[in-house]
Amino acid sequence: MTSDPDRTLGAGAVAMPSSSSRASSSLSSSAPSSAQLADPVPRQPVPARASIADVRETLRAAGAGPVHERHLMQQWLQARALDAPYRGDPNFLPRRVREALPAIEHRLGALACVRERAPGEGAERLLVGLADGQTVESVLLPRGGLCVSSQIGCAVGCTFCTTGRDGLLRQLGSAEIVAQVALARRLRAVRKVVFMGMGEPAHNLDAVLDAIALLGTDGGIAREQLVFSTVGDRRAFERLPQAAVRPSLALSLHTTRADLRERLLPRAPRIAPDELVELADTAARASGFPLLVQWTLLDGVNDGDDEVEALAALLAGRRAILNAIPWNAVEGSDFARPPLERAVAFVRGLRARGTMATLRWSAAQEVDGGCGQLRARRAAGGSPATAPVALPATTRLNRAG
Ligand code: SF4
């Protein structure tokens, strides 16, 4: 899909001030005008790339003080009704804020809605619609996990990935990232969030770190259950240890051979695999959690004994866990998924050499293919879903969209 990322919703939608407009926004004035008092959350189109700061600004403009703002952020992120009494007090929120709640709910709901659900065994892929009509994918994973997207498209261009085929279309705003969690929580509990969906989180670093900081506090997710995944980027390795909430780190390595990695991940930073592992390991140690190493198994490409030997040597003496994930078939691709016996032999070979390793038959294989495929199919005209999918009425949030 190549629709204009700055296109806004038509009549009936409501506004979340954009980052660029924040400085000049009248909503941010410390002395609200009479017009603002009459309509603290005016109904205007919702721009793309809304940030968490935009959400906070909206709440403050409606009259929320710091305690009210925190309460409302928690209610939103936990998919609870904004107007629920706080500790039994129905008047906890100021009257002006209470009156603005329907418009605020509408704004939050417009950030993300479910366009399509593709359930599978143990996992479910969601096609999430954004305010500007773009879509991204989130995946409900087993045991309360959620895989979220950080970009629409991706500039890394991994040759085995559908998302990378069209390059980067646009960044997600931090509010659009956490809105995926609020949306998923309408469907079921979310205790873990992995940034392994569409996009390279290191290429949208500020927004992703803002999202992680909020999810790890008001979002109620333990930081070891927040997983930042990257193909390897020096800026990310430098920033993560300084982050307000330091997440777990996953490195998408895929091969120990520099030449092969350049072919598989053509626009990833040119860092030799041994240096890459050293940098990632250093950053992971600063977080206090083991380094997760992601390895997409491609038949006859990176599933051989040579890779087992080299990988075991690279990870020797490190607190690292290798996750081997057999490739999900992509239409028109020359790659193939290795047979189960080969995948098992790969992991056994690592374990025999002292490397902690797990084999994951990707749940996504059972839920409409790998990352980006559901979106790509629907963008190509294969979707019957043109309206938001109705969700359980456990909360008043996210009815819009
Ligand atoms: S695998 Fe990840 S980093 Fe590579 S193109 Fe796809 S989304 Fe981007």
Can you walk through the features of this model?
By secondary structure, this protein is an alpha/beta fold. 33% of the residues lie in helices and 16% in strands. It has a domain at 113-382: TIM Barrel, CATH 3.20.20. It has helices at residues 19-22, 34-38, 52-61, 66-77, 95-111, 174-184, 205-215, 234-239, 258-264, 273-287, 305-315, 340-352, 373-382; strands spanning 112-119, 124-130, 135-141, 145-147, 151-153, 168-171, 192-195, 226-230, 248-252, 291-297, 320-326, 356-359. The strands form 2 sheets. The chain has a 10-stranded mixed β-sheet with strand order 1-2-3-4-7-8-9-10-11-12. A two-stranded antiparallel ribbon has the order 5-6. Strand 3 (135-141) and strand 4 (145-147) form a beta hairpin. Helix 3 packs across helix 6. Mean pLDDT is 85; it is low at 1-38 and 394-401. Bound molecules: iron/sulfur cluster. Iron/sulfur cluster is lined by residues 154, 156-158, 161, 163-164, 198-200, 231, 371.
CATH class of one domain: Alpha Beta
Tell me about the largest β-sheet.
10 strands, mixed
Mean pLDDT: 85
| Topology as a string of helices (H) and strands (E) | HHHHHEEEEEEHEHEHEHHEHEHEH
Count the DSSP helices.
13
Distance between the ends: 19 Å
Could you list the spans in which at least 5 consecutive residues all have pLDDT below 50?
A: 1-38, 394-401
Question: Strand portion, in percent?
Answer: 15-25%
Instruction: Give the tally of β-strands.
Output: 12
CATH fold field value of one domain:
TIM Barrel
Radius of gyration: 22 Å
Q: Indicate the structural class.
A: alpha/beta
Quick one: overall form?
globular
Q: Give the strand order of the largest sheet, numbering strands 1, 2, ... along the chain.
A: 1-2-3-4-7-8-9-10-11-12
Q: From the coordinates shown, what is the CATH architecture of one domain?
A: Alpha-Beta Barrel
Bound molecules: iron/sulfur cluster
Helix share of residues?
25-40%
CATH superfamily of one domain: Aldolase class I
